[in-house]
């Protein structure tokens, strides 16, 4: 009973012995019961207490063991809690690099020192630099993939951005709102076109690692390389992908500028933009100068406009691009002029230069839709009938309208006012009229083997085209919404163009007629020594008069003055040519018989003039073309020298148109011919007197000439 805390292993033995002891004591108690009863009771009480204490010791021992286990678990949990960020670092790297770096920093600076000097903590600490390097390398790899991706797909993404701008512009036009600011247009942001997270991730990682400058320099260097590739001029500048790449490059840089702090700055972006502008404009100037297709120039212009509008929406200045487009407008105009020159030449070459036959009202209406033609008198004539002009009139008029439309297409979307567009179209149209069409008409008029009928038709055609010029004025005003009577509005020079062409055709008619007359005169075969003239006109002259009659019959549709001028010109040329024929140096002798035949021919010419081959001449006006010949022949055939010599120089002289030089030259051909060709054989008795008379007249003419010269 006096033991204090026996060992657990001896507890059983102790209890056995205790039980034996109790039994012994019980016997002793029985013996001593009567004498020691109170002491017996006390012993029993003490034993019960010892038993209770032993039970308490057992429970306390179990509690101590459990508390030790709890303390160990708590310590382990605490240490593991400090090391938990390290166990999660691989997962963080796989998910997000930037949080992984933050976790590594927390692990290195806080968690591992608190965890203690365990072996696994040491291993984690040693691997932290390698993990940082791995995170940096992986993020840089992602950045490189990003840069490569936007390089490969810049065309497609740029196309998407520009198409979205195009759609938005069209919507704004529909509501008459032409502002191109980002706020109004709501231009799609670059984030809508591409995922920029690799750039942001890498930037943050390098910032955390203290290497931001390294990253900025690398990024700018790589983007400059890409810029040089994008801005490198291509052999085909009309390629849409070129504009798309340019647009997307600056869309990306604008987004980076506005979403990062200092990765790129405004000066860097502006430097690249100025480089892009200079290279683009230089390339445009070079390639457009070699381009000969107006459709390609138009496609290029549309791409540049879309490119400029897109980047203007992102805040880039694009005035130089629009200035360049205005320069290209002149090149576009020159290409159009060359193209229309071919069209006009083809129309003029293929025309039959005959009035257009119209068999039905439908045909008439079809032509009226192509060309504004009104003729009340013609409308009264039943079908079938003929229009006065040939096919080239409606075709040329249609081509003029097509040219105006082509000019309008280029001026669209250049942010020009209606007045500027109207002025541009009118100036270009004037160049078409005064240069291209005028030259083509001159070519058609002066080309080889052009006939009189064709020239007459050209005059008729140009007359109708001239009358249609005010319709062209109205057409331009309708498509530009600028009234034709606007102050300082450019006027079309169509009237003068067609007048000049008509005058050239008229002159060509006169020249052509004269050439035809010369061809007939080459067939003249006079017997200059004939003793007597014939009773009828020479064959060549009869054919010539017949030709002139048929020719002037075609002139019925010509303006009156043109026909009259042509007829007068032909008669004057015929008269002059006949006189030259008579006075040719090769004609050394002229007999009176030859003069009589020549006189018969001139009378035939006078009958033609008197018959009025074209209407409009008053009296015998056309006869005046032959007055010089008539007076000269009358003087010789009537041998009226006394009158000529007596009245010479007076206004009322009968032979006022006879020049003494001309009379002397012809008289010299008749002098002293009697011995050679028996010229005055019919006057044998008076032969000598006649020869003397000729000598006398020659002498008097020479004196008259000498007196006038003095």
TrEMBL record:
Belongs to the SEC15 family. Residues 15-67 form a coiled coil. Gene3D superfamilies: Dsl1p vesicle tethering complex, Tip20p subunit, domain D, Exocyst complex subunit Sec15 C-terminal domain, N-terminal subdomain. GO terms for cellular component: exocyst; plasma membrane. GO terms for biological process: Golgi to plasma membrane transport; intracellular protein transport; vesicle tethering involved in exocytosis. Component of the exocyst complex involved in the docking of exocytic vesicles with fusion sites on the plasma membrane. InterPro entries: EXOC6/Sec15, EXOC6/Sec15_C, EXOC6/Sec15_C_dom1, EXOC6_Sec15_N, EXOC6PINT-1/Sec15/Tip20_C_dom2. Residues 65-162 form the Exocyst complex component EXOC6/Sec15 N-terminal domain. PANTHER family: EXOCYST COMPLEX COMPONENT 6B (PTHR12702:SF3), SEC15 (PTHR12702). It holds the Pfam family Sec15_C. Transmembrane segments: none annotated. Keywords: Coiled coil, Exocytosis, Transport. Residues 320-669 form the Exocyst complex subunit EXOC6/Sec15 C-terminal domain. It comes from Cyprinus carpio (Common carp). It comes from the Eukaryota. This is Exocyst complex component.
